[in-house]
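Weekly modeling sync, notes
Attendees: S.R. (lead), two postdocs, one rotation student

Agenda item 3: backlog of single-chain predictions. S.R. asked that every request posted to the team notebook include the full sequence so nobody has to chase files. The rotation student volunteered to paste the first one in as an example of the format we agreed on. Action items at the bottom.

Example entry:
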Amino acid sequence: MNTHPYAGNYRTPSPASRLFPSLRFYARLLALLYQAGKQAAAGVYSADDWILSSEAVGHALEAVGADIRIDGFDHVRSLNTPCVFVANHMSTLETFVLPGIIQPVRDVTFVVKNSLLKYPFLGPVLRSREPIVVGRANPREDLASVLDGGQRHLDAGRSVIIFPQGTRSHTVDERQFSSLGIKLARKAGVPVMPLALKSDAWGTGFLVKDIGFIRPRLPIRFRFGSPVPVTGNGREEHAAVVSFIRKTFDAWRSEDDQF
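Predicted structure, as returned to the notebook:
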């Protein structure tokens, strides 16, 4: 996967072997994480390194047969301001792959749960990118962390990725989406960009949630929508963003059901 010259749409050029995809992918991922974690722990892991690591994960997925499809990236390229990316959350995949898509053209960080920072290798990598950390035990504290930390990043020109469902889900239900991304965008005076994704090719594990089977038969999809300026109380904008994600996701599901 090469997103640096990426214009607007991307699809994996040709299918690869799907023999033992989980074993082959995780062997490669472990090597990538080990190297990146060492660099980050030593304080020498840059934004460019993050891009290369993320792209390498995308390549590793494609190497075991995954089909990555990206649409609407021209919306990101055309922005002249940072933004808040609001996306649904399905698996670990988006945390690994999104930096390689967005970071080459727009500096970005995540809102992440604090448990991710405790992972070996991955923790130092995420900390090096100065994420906004939430604990999910105290919603009021999490809200303050996102609004204050998010505004600092946005004021400095760095966009923020938020998964407002709070937890991973293989469905898109408007009732599960908080308006946190809208609140942050309104406070910082930046637009929201909806991002629909389908990443269940990376399954959920039984013993370790982040280590599930890799299922290359399921296409990996990302679609960026038009930026949405936030005015007033943001209710209409929240509804529009979530509607874009739900309708896009439902259309993908319908396409997949035909096969």
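Discussion: group reviewed the output briefly. Residues 235-257 form the longest helix (23 residues).
Action items: rotation student to repeat for the remaining queue; S.R. to check formatting next week.
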